[in-house]
Amino acid sequence: MAMSRDGGNLFEENRLEEIRERMDAIENLTVTYNDNVFTWEDVCTLNGLGAGTSTTYKFPCARLSPMDFFQETRTYFKEVDRVTWYHGVVRGAAIRPRVLRFGILQQHCLGLEEGQSDACKVQAGLRLNPDFAEQMGYPREYANPLGLIGDVGSLELSDNCRICIEESLEAKMEKLQHELVVPFFSVLARELRRFQQTLADPEELAQVDDLATKAEKIAKKVDKRAVEDFYYYQVLRSTYAELGAEAYQSAYNQLITPDAVPLDCSTSACPKFNITLEDSKQALRNHADNTFSSITTAGSPLPAWSESDGSGIMLQGFNPVGGSGVNMSADTLSAVAYLDLVNYRNTSAWNPLYANSYADPLNDPNWVPLVETNPVYAWFMAGETEMTAHCGNGNLTGSETGDRTFDTFTNFVAVHKLTQYWCTKYAEPFEEDATRTKQHFARMFYDGLLDSDSFLGITQGSDDPYTWTLGAGCGYSLGGERYSYTEQSEADVLANASGNLYFIEEGVSVGVVDRNLLIGDATPPVGNYNFSNPLQKVGVVQSLFALLGEPKAIRNRVSNCNRPGGPLNITDEDAEEVLYLAKERFDEIWSKGWDDESAGEVQFVGFVDDVGVVGTTGRFLKEITLSNGWLTTISILIICCFSVFLMFSLDAVESKVALTLVGCGLVVLSYFAALGFSIMIGIKINVATAWTLPFILLGLGVDDMYIVLLALKKESQKGHSEDSFLRGMQEVVVPVTMTSLVNASMFAIMNISDVPAVNLTARVALIAVVFLYLSIIFCFSAYCFLDMKRQAAGTRDVFCCTKAGERSNEDSGNKCVGTWLSTLLYDKLFKPLVLGNSTIRIVSHLLIWAVAAGLVGVSIYGITEREVGLGLEDFFPHDHQAQQWASKRTESLGSWSIGMNWGALTYTEPETQMKMIKQFEDVIAHPNVADVDTKQLWIADLAIWTSRMCDANVARSNPSIKMCGRDQVWPVDNSTCAGTWKRNAFGLRQKIFNDMKGQCNAYEGGICRPTSKMHFADLIDLGINMSAQDQNEVWCPVMEGWSDDKLRFCIKQWRFLAGGGGGLILEDEHGSPTQCQGEYYSNEEIKTPIPYSTGPTMFSFNLLSHEITTTVIEETRAICDDDKELHCWLTGIPYNYWSQYIGIFSVLVEISAWSVCVGFVVAVLFLLAQHTRQGGNRSLAQNVGGSLAGALLITAVMILSLVSVIGLSILAGVSITGFSIMSFVLSVGFSVEYAVHVVSRWLHAPNSIQSASDRVDYAMAFLTLPTFMSFMSSCIGVATLSQTEFSFTQVFYFRPLIIVMPVTYYFGCWWLPAFLSILDFEFVKLGGESEEVRPQEQPIAEKQGLPEPTDIHRLSDQEDSDNGKAPSLLEDITSEVEC
């Protein structure tokens, strides 16, 4: 993409030059790999004229650009490219077919002879007679004889004139070969041999033997190509005379006058004055038949020189200079009359025109006028006759009359007015003599004549599609040129760029290029401007460069024999690396200086797709993915430091720094182990994995670590035995297992998403949750047990090999940071507010409920304001050139390539074929899909190929091979690949026909046609009698009655002969090889029944927002994907990427609902299991009821948190995407982390604690510290994301996750306890008689020699135990949270 830095117009000379230079830099791109240099031509999609043409590396790489409006863009055409274009396109596809048909039109379709068709009489009259053209409604300037050459190529194949031309041409070539050339030379050879037997003179014998041998050789080897060549050059000869006569007559009569020629015509021979048009024609024919000149090959038709070869003097003779060297002045049938071929086998009637009973080339006076100058004899004999000469660009000579003034004048005229320079270095031999055949030099002359300014005005090796146009596209003429912006005003440049845009072939193969794809920020907008209402500004232009999508295609490409520097043998892996380097280099070259205001007036930004190997996005995402290391490290360090800080105590024995570090280390190790395991089983790490999981899962991991650590710490207050350890683990194993299972289930549910970045990340997270659970429950707990032993032994924390000194048990708890923080958070903050005196409690509860209601209310509003989607511009940071590209593309272009695909259908059925076409036409009829001619669809193109509308025979490289379906014979039953026509029962588009009056339609439209435009032979086949009803019918080409085997054969022929496509599955890697190594024909076998096919490349445009894009996807899928009768599916970036946003809110609701439901079910089951395990006098109904109540409370927290997170995130500018959904749903995991522990402990408070507020006091006195630590550690992990330079991670990860943390903490640790404090119901009181010492635990007390505790008391510490003191409930709870 190129855009003006100042927001102004790009279409002015200086800025267009900048764009052209940048495009040329891409064409010159090179990369080095394994000491081999690879070029742009090694990796671009198309750099030849097609498979089997041996032109790979001899034609420019395909690209689409608005710069194709302008002639200056031609600089990317190398010399070899121009030569290929000249021979393959201009001569082979455009001019030769037209010249042949122009000759046929003149000779066979004007009704000039009795019994001859006059089908082209009107068309010829329009071009030859201005009055007639005007009478028929055409402008007078339409009458241009040269226009007939263009007409014969553009007339419909169903036009009667075109039918006459095509049928006559085939008949003419057959007749020339088999009824004239071969018979003539066969008989001539025999007759010469007969005459040879009469000769005795060795010299004469040798002369006649040479002629007879040549005649025999010609008769044996002449083929259709040779005959067509003969006719082509014969037509050129006559065309030279017919079309050049008028101009020659005018020039001659102005130059050669009695006053201008200083000769005394009474004593000297003077040239003819005031010549007629017929005189002019004859002069031109004489020139064509004249001697070939190596001095000045172009010569001059003016009969004014003493010598014919260019060495003579002007006005001293009556010879033209130069010519073909092959005299074809006699009638074509003169040789037939000479040999009397008609009666040759009838001896009695045979009457040749021999003067002496033999075909005597030595003495027969009839030989020269009837045979030697006969076009057939002269041309083909010239092909067997050697000649030494060369193509020369010398000057014509002037006169030598002695009159200095006159001679100076004639020399000036001869050099500057009459001399033409036809020879180029490609006219071999050039400037130096070499031996070839006379026919070779004759071709040289006629080719130069055709290229001369008098006709085509083209120079081989110099001209290209920008300086010489084919006349196929609207606004282009044959031999014209594309507009040049050099030294033109801005208004003129804009006006001349206001028409249709074409690729270099002017729409012949790919059609008109939709300007919506390539031009943006235009005034007037694209679609509203034209030559009458021209452009006023173009702010953005986009150029599309195509690369090979598969590494193996590059491997095949570089093995081609035409590769500059020689072919290379590389592996697919090498090719993949080359493609990667080429894409990387493309980005570097195109976007160079994009952020440098001094680097020109144009800003260049670009994007390379990820087909084959990663491109711009892939490289950037890899960069993002791998750049999270430092933030992850910082997050880990801060979390570890925070945890260590809270677990540090001045009491070296009670301190748990080492154990905390071990726990943090296990969490980190478990995460990276899960990451490594995921990679081992084939899960690719992506940006979501890198920028979500380490910051979330590490927090979840340390949350569980805190719970286990503090629970065991509490139990260690009662002793350091195995029983104490087991009691602690029994308390936490169920809630930790439950939270882990909920989290695992939540991540499992995320696999509903079809976004790889989401479901792959969810799989990694699922594995990580399992690993974290196992490490915390089995590994970390073991370290905790060892730490308990350390404490029992009285050794120091960290320095565990050293004994601590005397310790005071009275103030050991006050030495712990955690104790201080717990006192601050719970005693000074939470308890006074939530559980304090009635006034404060009422106010605080009202405030808590008000905040909760406010959060939910605001969040619900936020959800109603939701936006969906994530554009490419959201991926890239603002300081990345691709972000500018993506933003401008969304604002001004919004175009993407798309495609249609079909699976296994009954392709042999006409109804299926027409339905496919209908689907295709309905999709491209959508206002956001660029128009494409129906014939671009493979099934439509194949149908045309099987009909009489096939034009593949027009420009055959080998005239002996017919290339249309009706000419291909299926050997199984000798039927042909001929289709038929069916009535248009599906409302398919009709073809748009130009009326030849200057109106030009850029698009052809459909392939169906009305009865009036049908080929008469098709109407006969269909039995149409041209009734009024039949006149209104529309017909469409189809294949009917074919088997799969016949379809297989015909498609193979179609692909081989006509270059058909369709993306069909091939059974061979490539077709048969050509003579050029590494190049193959397109004749692979296709797989049948056809399992899969594709449509042409299509483009969507004006997708300027996510909403428009998803609407277009839904509307077009309704045509294709949702069709139950004939299923097809649409692909391309909009469908592969934006389709995830269709119904994405429903996906969010679905994933959220499943997560909450799973959380509810897991909570019910685990709470029930926990109640059942604890035993007691409760019934099953009580356990179930309590479990349901607890699960409902947990679910309420999940729902409130989820709704709040979603709504607040949306208000914070986070749109709904697969990435944000993942962040939203993580709130379920965090809310469960808090709610499970709170609800579980609240439910299981000892029965002696009766009031709801006391039960909350019991739960939160212990949980305040670990939940706050969990909250802080998670916040720390997420907060580090704020330091990323990538806006994508800040928007879709940091914003929602930083909202998740306080919201879930608020609902789980403030709103939930406040709510629980008013739930004073018996069925939720599921605790035991004493939670601290159960009956089965009494042996432990007895074993330790401790007094049996009361129902509501516990052993607080050893000193109290010794004194037999029973602490109060408050003292009991307070001591539980001491270090």
From TrEMBL:
One of its GO terms (cellular component) is membrane. Residues 1332-1379 are annotated as: Disordered. Residues 628-786 form the SSD domain. The chain crosses the membrane at residues 629-650, 657-683, 689-712, 732-752, 764-786, 846-864, 1141-1168, 1188-1210, 1216-1237, 1258-1281, 1293-1316. InterPro entries: HMGCR/SNAP/NPC1-like_SSD, Patched_domain-protein, SSD. Keywords: Coiled coil, Membrane, Transmembrane, Transmembrane helix. Residues 9-36 form a coiled coil. It holds the Pfam family Sterol-sensing. Belongs to the patched family. This is Protein patched homolog 1. It comes from Seminavis robusta.
